[in-house]
Design brief:
This protein has about 325 residues and is an alpha/beta fold. It has a single domain, classed as Rossmann fold (3-Layer(aba) Sandwich). It is built from 14 helices and eight strands. The protein starts with 12 loop residues before the first strand and ends in an 8-residue tail after the last helix. Helix content is about 40%, strand content about 15%. The radius of gyration is 19 Å and the shape is globular. An eight-stranded mixed beta sheet has the order 3-4-2-5-1-6-7-8, sandwiched between helices. The protein binds adenosine-5'-triphosphate and magnesium ion. The site of magnesium ion (MG) has 3 residues, from helix 1.
């Protein structure tokens, strides 16, 4: 049996970003998380495992890879078409001035997907082995490796579940983040992705994960939540009261579906900038009074909690 590395030891973490539904804010939040981790001095690899829509390049504003790469992306690597995934140094390649590496920003490397790479149909052993090799390689080089998976019970999810259950990757610290919007459908869907039929726990167990340990490594991220202050700013009292009622009902629903506070990594507030434009929220955006300060703080707090061992103590 490999010795399971506990959180905090070396602080090296593999993070898998999942969601049941599409459009949950999984990629935008994961990219912002990556940026905040770099601000805190950690080197980060961001792997675009969203085979259907590999657009991480657009979020980092790298025009040459905004829809993925022509060749040598993650998708074709897994299929065995080449042995080295293209690496894009975000600070060097981005068109966004504020993202270029300053004295405070550590290395952020994007491993893009292949342009037009459709969702996988195959999950054979060779693909799983190549996935494990890639993750091991990155884990030795970067403090945090963030893998943005395709939505739902995808082949991408199955491949990484299989790879992380197999030695030597099984001994590394893996975290599973499940992103969802703050609505009834999204709460039920997120719970289903983890606890439901063919969900993360069931599938994980099939590949050899210990169900309880796997559950301990899962946390939820609520995105674009209209907070109390934003609700209170609504003009009509009836509207404010109604929104408060809905929020209460959603909290109850989340608790009943095992998405209560202890299972939550954090939440991001509804941010007008992100409603209009998918991007990294820089401190400069906040200082210019364009983005809300709460948004920058929320991403910072998500990053802090992600690497804090206290977050991952047994529930
Ligand atoms: N806190 C927020 N406030 C407002 N809008 C947000 C927030 N977070 C994300 N969004 C917006 O929600 C939309 C969906 O986000 P994103 O593309 O990250 O979702 P996704 O789950 O990765 O989707 P897909 O399944 O298509 O990959 C984007 O337009 C994004 O800018
Ligand atoms: Mg996405």
């Amino acid at each position: 049996m490999p010795v399971r590395m506990r959180s905090g030891e070396g602080g090296i973490v593999l993070v898998f970003s999942t969601s049941d539904k599409g459009g949950t804010g999984r990629s935008v939040t994961s990219c912002n998380l990556a940026y905040r981790l770099c601000l805190s001095g950690r080197t980060v690899a961001y792997v675009d495992f969203d085979f259907g829509s590999p657009t991480a390049g657009a979020l980092f504003e790298i025009s040459t890879v905004e829809r993925g790469v022509d060749r040598n992306g993650v998708h074709s690597y897994l299929l065995g078409e080449h042995d080295a995934v293209t690496r894009v140094d975000v600070a060097a390649a981005t068109d966004r001035g504020g993202l270029r590496r300053g004295p405070r920003l550590s290395r952020l490397m994007l491993l893009p997907g292949d342009q037009g790479g459709a969702e996988f149909l195959s999950r054979d052993q060779a693909i799983v082995d190549r996935c494990a090799r890639l993750l091991l390689e990155l884990e030795q080089e970067f403090k945090v490796v963030i893998v943005d998976l395709s939505a739902g019970r995808s082949a991408a999810l199955e491949i990484v579940l299989h790879a992380t259950a197999t030695a030597p990757l099984a001994s590394r610290t893996a975290r599973w983040l499940v992103f969802h919007r703050w609505t009834r459908q999204h709460i039920l869907a997120a719970s289903g992705l983890v606890h439901g039929k063919h969900g993360l726990l069931e599938m994980g167990e099939v590949y050899g994960h210990n169900r309880d340990e796997l559950l301990e490594s899962v946390r939820y991220v609520r995105t674009a939540v209209s907070g109390r202050a934003a609700r209170a700013a609504q003009q009509r009292p009836a509207q404010v009261a109604w929104l408060d009622e809905q929020d209460k009902a959603l909290r109850q629903l989340a608790n009943n579906n095992r998405l209560g506070t202890t299972a939550v990594l954090g939440e991001t507030p509804m941010e007008p900038v992100l409603q209009w434009r998918e991007q990294i929220i820089l401190d400069a955006d906040v200082n210019a009074h364009i983005a809300n300060p709460e948004t920058g703080l929320a991403y910072g707090e998500l990053a802090r909690r992600l690497v804090d061992p206290a977050t991952w103590r047994r529930l």
